[in-house]
Amino acid sequence: MNARVITVVVTDDSAFMRRAIQKMLEKEPEIRVVGTAASGEEGIAMVERLRPDVVTMDVEMPGIGGLEAARAIVERRGPPIIMVSALTRDGAETTLRALELGAVDFIPKPDSALIDIVNVQRELVEKVKHFGSRGAYLRAMRETLRIQRGALAEARPPAPPPPPPPRPPSTARAGGFACVAIGTSTGGPVALSQILPKLPAGFPIPIVVVQHMPPGFTRPLADRLDSMSRIDVVEGADGMQLVPGTAIIAPAGKQLRLVRSRGTVRVALGDDAQRSLHVPSVDAMTASVGETFGSGALGVILTGMGHDGVQGLRVLKERGGYVLGQDEASSVVYGMPRAAAVAGLVDRVVALDAVSRTLCELTGTVYAPV
What we know:
Elements: E1 6-11, H1 15-25, E2 31-37, H2 40-50, E3 54-58, H3 66-75, E4 81-85, H4 89-101, E5 105-108, H5 117-131, H6 134-155, E6 179-184, H7 188-193, E7 207-211, H8 218-228, E8 232-235, E9 246-249, E10 255-261, E11 264-270, H9 282-293, E12 297-301, H10 310-318, E13 322-326, H11 336-342, E14 348-350, H12 355-362
Parallel strand pairs: 1-2, 1-3, 3-4, 4-5, 6-7, 6-12, 7-9, 8-9, 12-13, 13-14
Antiparallel strand pairs: 10-11
């Protein structure tokens, strides 16, 4: 019996790009492009008429742009949307907004000399196959709607009075963590927006984050999260010192490791000598956090495709660290957390909306989300 064919509508104002994406997808016998649209308006109408399993949506188009078209499709409970974004700051910021509205993922536009076309094709095919299954799509939509409802509910009541400053955690093993290491991929930008903004300004230890993203996206992500959060959120730079209450986002295209010198711990950015599938990789970062902080390392593995993080978290665990894993129900893609759990590396499984509270609990910090 033949496997079900996944149908796709490609939306882009460039005829060249429509053909390029169609060619990438139709190299796979399980995928068929049933329509191509040259504008957001045409894309919305084509989705209504053809009912595809997946839509690819250009971010920047004249008339109704990709953000507005994605919003309209999500509001009509249409198929999952994969954004196709140029490597510009405006493109990255619009893509992040589209993800918050309900687009399930994105790829960099495959028209730049900076982009590895083979990897873009692999990612696009992988994502179309994943989200083309109805079960994966419904899970992603349920999680997006749950997050949106939660955000609205939290916005209604008046803000509580500020809590007293948290007492510093003890240096004992219970509550004696020194650094949080967060790894994520597909679904990560929205997941991070549900974690970092809920941490108090007095969060007592530094945070290091790897989010799989192409170059040009990690700075806008850090800026967007910083504007939403009471802690500081910055894109990492070589030599940057880790400080309590600051989350450092690993920059795309560099591996992030840590070095300890004269009582301080600093970021060390480097090229990818191991030719990893992901740069930055969760493996490289979490292994370094484990080697640097030992039993003071607190790992968090979130939604994402694949198994990046398993090797690094194994090192972190061998050094005495502790690992939280996101649960399946709240993950857009239960790949990376599942791989870590199957490997026996997860000490505690938590839903996305409980991650911030759990981090505060483990670090002896008062949890008071706004």
